[in-house]
Design a protein that fits this description.
By secondary structure, the chain is α/β, with parallel strands linked by helices. 36% of the residues lie in helices and 27% in strands. It starts with a helix and ends with a helix. Bound molecules: adenosine-5'-triphosphate. The site of adenosine-5'-triphosphate has 13 residues, from strand 4 and helix 2.
């Protein structure tokens, strides 16, 4: 059985009836999530500002730098925060204080909120029970879902012994165990190792292909575009652009993209990378242990870095896109 079939066949929740309300459409698909003029203030600080959007089935990437309002928007859409003004609906029904809707929603929050002394398995069972499943069903769903996210081997260990990547996978398992129609993931790739990252991306894609509505936030374009082509760009609490990745890519390609490289022989590796035409500049950290490489072809550069490191016997400790990439893009977009 494929993982995709497993996601669906593993679960036997009692599905809620679809809303009787007629729904609008986005790109030929029914609108699942909708907001109109939604704003939220934290005292004097604006979290999100006058956001109106329609999201349909499939994966939508919510992309923005730190502090853009991604978590605030996801919290409003998942019913954790009430908008100060405006309306937010799922399947045409208000989200706030609507327990019927909560059963159709799964959430991977940015912050961990575990009972650390519990095992991963008990944690998923416990939260699945809260969705109204019997103990037997919750156990079965927890086991099947933990298997799906690659946590079978470690599910009976205490959560306080887990790596960051394992924690992310348990968060994903609790979010999908009850087979929700809608899934919100807030920076799910943070701290994941390459295998966990691949697994998470694959699952997000599968859920989208199954017709679930998945909204995934990130501040790294490269991460988001591995999961979807549909992007909402958000900055300073506002949606700046809503559309296809290629249009957004075009804007980005006019700006050099920065990749931070951490390895055991930074000078040697920087010299190798500098020979490529797309590389615009290389800048070392003050201690010269890491360097930033600016490139006009991020895709090629991301592919090339691990390959060259392997070929030249360089130990690559990490490479990632620092926030200032997106900041540069957003500054450009709001000009
Ligand atoms: N509980 C809070 N109290 C006061 N201000 C807050 C609170 N939570 C968020 N903010 C502010 O609201 C704005 C949006 O924050 P939010 O966390 O939604 O952004 P984000 O895009 O998710 O960023 P990050 O990835 O850093 O979490 C920021 O200016 C942030 O400082």
């Amino acid at each position: 059985m494929s993982a995709a079939q497993a996601v669906d066949s593993a679960k036997t929740p009692k599905p809620s009836k679809p809303s009787a309300h007629p729904v609008a459409r986005v790109g030929g698909e029914p609108v699942v999530i909708s907001t109109r003029n939604v704003s939220l203030w934290y005292g004097q600080v604006i979290g999100v500002n006058d956001i109106s959007l329609d999201i349909g089935p499939g994966v939508t990437g919510l992309l923005g730098p730190n502090g853009a309002g991604k978590s605030t928007l996801l919290k409003i859409l998942s019913g954790q925060l009430r908008a100060s003004t405006g309306q937010a609906t799922i399947f045409g029904e208000p989200i706030w204080n609507n327990s019927k809707i909560f059963q159709r929603v799964g959430l991977v929050p940015e912050q961990d909120a575990f009972y650390e002394e519990m095992t991963g398995r008990d944690f998923v069972i416990y939260l699945t029970r809260l969705q109204g499943f019997s103990m037997g069903e919750a156990r079965r769903l927890a086991d099947e879902t933990l298997d799906l996210v690659g946590m079978s081997k470690n599910k009976n260990r205490r959560i306080d012994e887990y790596s960051k990547g394992m924690r992310q996978r348990v968060k994903l398992a609790q979010a999908i165990a009850h087979s929700p129609d809608i899934l919100f993931l807030d920076e799910p790739l943070t701290g994941t190792d390459p295998v966990g990252r691949h697994k998470m991306i694959e699952l997000v894609q599968l859920l989208g292909e199954q017709g679930k509505t998945v909204v995934v936030s990130s501040h790294v374009l490269h991460e988001v575009e591995q999961m979807t082509q549909d992007i909402l760009l958000i900055n300073k609490g506002r949606v700046l652009a809503d559309g296809n990745i290629y249009a957004i890519r075009e804007m980005i390609d006019k700006h050099p993209h920065t990749i931070r490289v951490d390895c055991d022989k930074p000078r040697q590796f920087a010299a190798i990378l500098a020979t490529y035409e797309d590389v615009v500049s290389i800048e070392f950290a003050p201690d010269a242990a890491r360097f930033n490489i600016a490139t006009r072809d991020p895709d090629a550069c991301y592919m090339r870095i691990p390959k060259l490191a392997r070929e030249h016997g360089i130990e690559l400790r990490g490479f990632m896109s620092p926030d200032n990439n997106l900041m540069a893009l957003f500054e450009y977009l709001v000009k």
